[in-house]
Design a protein that fits this description.
heterodimer, A: mainly alpha, ABC transporter involved in vitamin B12 uptake, BtuC, two-stranded antiparallel ribbon, 16 helices, 2 strands, globular, B: mainly alpha, two-stranded antiparallel sheet, 1% strand
């Protein structure tokens, strides 16, 4: 059911194309597909432990709580497939949360200017991350580590490390409340925001920008030779991740309140989520929707453990274990699938056994 | 085009040799040039505030401060040289500190068992990470993040606050000094020299660099590509373990959060990259790493003397990391390009000419990244 979303929509009839059922099965066998099976299983387990969650409104509340991590994972996805890391996302969340808390205060009329300021801050951070990484050639890991230190240092310096005043209720609506609807009862705004972000992001992935971004992550040289400006592609990826962190921050202000350490650790959680969703570190491979599913898997696993009664202190261990298991499965399945074609090459190059000698000779000049 | 290439061939190889010489010096000498610059700026700023950076007391503080990060960074350098990454070191430092302090519990007889317990645990965990990277082909980032989180959960679940107590001998080791050098720092420098010998003079070191440069080529050349990875990770675990023991010697107790608070995972990686190493592996030097650590230490001690707000220290650290790495990254880039163009086929003269015309080359090639 969910796998169909990840498949590119093709309306033309193509006789050489395998039937939908087989394509779905093949898709589910990939790392980006397994995560959907895992997600369904975990959500079923969560609902089984707490049958109240089967009600649509309660279930949507559960999803709303996972929305910030999923949105951060969407941002991280763009940077990861371009072959870099963004370690500054947690610090960006911290900055934005504190900005909203201190500047909006009790005055609802300041919401719009402050949101514009937050977007401007995100654009500046994204541009700095992107341009330093691409034009100054500092590895993205180091650039974003630096901006992380700078931003979190500034945030803690400005606040003294203590919790701040919550902004006006009107601003916190997105993270706290929702719509009353006839059939499903209650639709949290956070779920709406998550859906909007995911729709925009999947549209971007299907645009030339998204395709070239994946190409530039897979092979920057080829992307350059194909005529795309890789530096601008990667800079835009960093812009998107900073903007995603800002959206997550707006939700977190409503949900968690104002504290400079609200976002700490989100960058690694987002990387974990993407990796569980089958995104390959180093760039070039990964499905956006599977990355979102990875975030939901991680969060529903934590929820499940909470219900089962495992102490919250074990959360990191669970996160570590799921990373290792997911990656081990990924590697074992992809390696099994990728090896045979390499072995098949020699037999395929000699269709006529008698022409064995001329064939390599004719190939060699082309190769060199 | 081809005519000029053969004509300038002689000049091209010579300028290539010069470029290589400059590049070879650049990776380490450049670090120390930046270090000198940082020292000069720090001295001027501190002097402007009416203090002196070079008093014996300040130098001792500086030398003391580099020991722990130094140990972690030595291990991190080995791991980065082999083309992997170790994000678990911060948790291993914490684990080592609680195991060492908990086992010795302040008793004199507990010194050796405490240290051995801590180091065996961290080496085994490091080797485990290495096996995941080498034989299961996980990326070092993911494997060490996962293993680090496993340890983090254990620490958070079994330890609340500080634990155990350093034995009198260990405490004495922590506060002893030979002349101006504190003993832990001296031990760190000895380990650094041992690591330099390991990398530069032994078969294992050669294999380490070969696998870091290109694991596939190394395997084709008959190197067992897994072993150096496991060894590097195990040694990184060992170094993190020693760092934890040094912390116990300093503080007198073990703490389950000391590694995370120190940020040793990311700072050690920053120090290694600051030292001129490539995160892709195969290039870098331990002396460069020492330079990177010294840059951090000088900046930190200058800010300490000026009593800068601790949160602003983080900001300055971030700026220093980005600025310093940006300086080398622009220098090192043409060398990387030449390796690829050699393999791809174009005349080396062209590439070395590009290396010679470095400023323009790096600007125009910026688009290729």
């Amino acid at each position: 059911m969910t796998g169909t979303v990840a498949e590119p929509a093709v309306t033309r009839y193509d006789p050489s194309r395998p039937p939908l059922a087989r394509r779905l099965a093949a898709g589910l066998a990939t790392p980006g597909g397994i995560v959907w099976v895992l997600l369904v299983a975990l959500l079923v387990a969560v609902v089984a432990y707490n049958p109240q969650l089967a009600a649509p409104d309660q279930f949507l509340r559960l999803i709303a709580r996972m929305a910030p991590v999923a949105i951060v994972a969407v941002g991280q996805y763009f940077v990861l497939v371009s072959g870099e890391f963004d370690l500054s996302m947690g610090a960006v969340i911290g900055v934005q949360v504190v900005l909203a808390g201190t500047l909006i205060g009790d005055d609802p009329s300041r919401i719009l200017p402050v949101v514009l300021l937050m977007v401007a801050v995100a654009v500046v951070v994204g541009l700095v991350n992107g341009l330093v990484t691409t034009l100054l050639r500092v590895p993205g890991f180091i650039t974003t580590l630096g901006t992380m230190l700078i931003l979190s240092g500034l945030t803690f310096y400005a606040t003294g490390g203590s919790a701040g005043q919550n902004p006006a209720e009107e601003f916190r609506v997105l993270g706290r409340s929702g719509l009353q609807l006839p059939i499903i009862g209650y639709l949290p705004w956070a779920v709406v925001v998550l859906v909007v972000v995911v729709v925009i992001a999947s549209w971007l992935v299907r645009r030339p920008f998204g395709r070239l971004l994946l190409l530039s992550g897979d092979n920057p040289r080829v992307a350059h030779l194909a005529g795309s400006s890789v530096w601008w592609l990667q800079t835009r990826a960093y812009l998107l991740s900073a903007l995603a962190a800002t959206v997550a921050a707006i939700l977190l202000v409503g949900y968690a309140g104002v504290h400079p350490s609200v976002g700490s650790g989100y960058e690694f959680t987002a990387i974990t989520a993407c990796v569980i969703g089958g995104v390959v570190l180093g760039g070039g491979r990964g499905w956006l929707l599977s990355a979102v599913a990875g975030a939901l898997v991680l969060e529903s696993l934590f929820t499940l453990l909470n219900f089962v009664g495992v102490a919250a202190t074990w959360r990191p261990t669970v996160q570590g274990a799921i990373i290792l298991v997911a990656m081990a499965v990924t590697v074992l399945t992809t390696f099994r699938r990728r090896r045979p074609p390499v072995r098949e090459v020699p037999p395929r190059s000699e269709p006529g056994a008698g022409e064995g000698a001329p064939a390599p000779a004719s190939q060699q000049p082309r190769g060199t | 085009m081809s005519g000029t290439a053969s004509e300038t061939g002689g000049r091209g190889t010579r300028s290539a040799a010069i470029a290589r010489l400059r590049g070879g010096l650049g990776s380490t000498a450049g670090v120390y040039l930046v270090l000198l610059g940082v020292i000069a700026v720090a001295a001027v700023v501190v002097a402007a505030a009416g203090r002196n950076l070079f008093t014996p007391g300040n130098l001792t503080v500086l030398m003391t401060s580099i020991a722990v990060l130094g140990f972690v960074a030595i291990g991190q350098t080995l791991v980065i040289l082999v083309g992997s990454l170790d994000l678990s070191v911060a948790y291993l430092v914490s684990l080592s500190s609680v195991l060492a302090a908990g086992t010795m519990a302040g008793a004199s007889g507990g010194t050796v068992p405490g240290i051995v317990t801590a180091l065996v645990a961290t080496v085994v965990i490091g080797a485990l990470t290495g096996c995941l990277v080498a034989y299961l082909r996980l990326s070092g980032f993911i494997a060490s993040l996962g293993v680090g989180l496993l340890v983090a959960g254990y620490l958070a679940s079994y330890y609340r606050g500080t634990t155990g107590k350093a034995s009198p001998e260990l405490a004495a080791f922590g506060s002893a000094s030979v002349g101006p050098l504190p003993v832990p720092t001296l031990l760190m420098l000895v380990c650094l020299v041992l690591a330099v010998i390991l990398v530069g003079r032994t078969r294992m070191g050669m294999h380490l660099l070969a696998v870091g440069g290109d694991a596939h080529v190394a395997r084709m050349s008959g190197v067992r590509a897994g072993t150096p990875v496991v060894v590097a990770h195990a040694l990184s675990g060992l170094c993190a373990g020693i760092a934890g023991v040094v912390i116990v010697a300093r503080l007198g107790v073990g703490s389950p959060t000391v590694g995370e608070q120190g940020g040793y995972d990311l700072l050690s990686i920053a120090a290694v990259v600051l030292g001129g190493a490539s995160l892709a592996g195969g290039r870098g030097s331990l002396w460069g790493t020492l330079g990177g650590i010294l840059i951090f230490a000088v900046v930190d001690s200058a800010m300490g003397i000026l009593q800068v707000n601790p949160f602003l220290k983080e900001v300055v650290r971030g700026v220093v990391i980005i600025a310093a790495v940006a300086l080398y990254a622009r220098r090192a880039a043409p060398l990387v390009r030449r390796r690829f163009t050699d393999a791809a086929g174009p005349a080396p003269a062209e590439a070395s000419a590009a290396a010679a015309a470095r400023p323009t080359a790096s600007v125009t090639e910026g688009a290729e990244r």
